[in-house]
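Input.
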Amino acid sequence: MTGLFNHRAIHQRLDAEFHRAERQNRPLSVMMMDLNNFKLFNDTYGHPVGDQVLKNVAEVLLAQCRKFDILGRYGGDEFIAVLPDTDEPLAGRGAAVARPHGE
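Output.
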């Protein structure tokens, strides 16, 4: 629905990226995100509207991530970003998910 990796696929990609980072001694960060009160939103406005919100969130995440970042819908209202070559300070600032100007 969102065009992002699903739970199973994201775990496969995360495993591969973890091993690659370990082999190459490169940083790897993972960000978990969720939509607060999404169940209440679905209950209030209905699942079709909630599905559109999930699609919109996925579009925003895709637009802000680098080409080699890996995005997935972890489940329900939870999203995950696997950020290769990104250390903790960079991930904490959110700089890794901001696409450089002109890219």
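Residues 58 and 83 are 16 Å apart (CA to CA).
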